[in-house]
Amino acid sequence: MQAWCRESIPVESHTDGSSLREREPQPEWAFVETANLIVIDQRRLGGTHVVRLYQRIKRAKNHQKAAMAVAATLQRLRSGC
Question: Mapping DSSP to helix (H, G, I), strand (E, B) and coil, where does residue 5 land?
């Protein structure tokens, strides 16, 4: 995600004063379900950007990481970033 587009969770700290890492929020449930539907229909959807993204990441990593990347992409496209 681009730094100017990211909505990150604020840094929290432990009782000893050390801070936890800042992390990005998980894509919402609807985006994850949409990504799974795209995976199921990838033959029909052909060479669309999200199908190519899924296939490229799945080759390098695995299905779960690829589906989450598609969900995050859909979420960014929806938010207009």
Answer: coil
CB 27 within 8 A of CB 71: yes
The domain total for the chain is: 1
Question: pTM for the complete prediction?
Answer: 0.64
* Cβ–Cβ < 8 Å for 37, 54: no
CA-based nearest residue to 25, from 50, 53, 55, 5? 5
Q: Tokens 């994850």 appear where?
A: 32
Q: For the purposes of burial, counting CB atoms within 10 Å of the CB of 19, is it exposed (0-12), middle (13-18) or buried (19 or more)?
A: exposed
pLDDT at 18 over 60: no
Residue 60: domain span: 29-79
13, part of any domain:
no
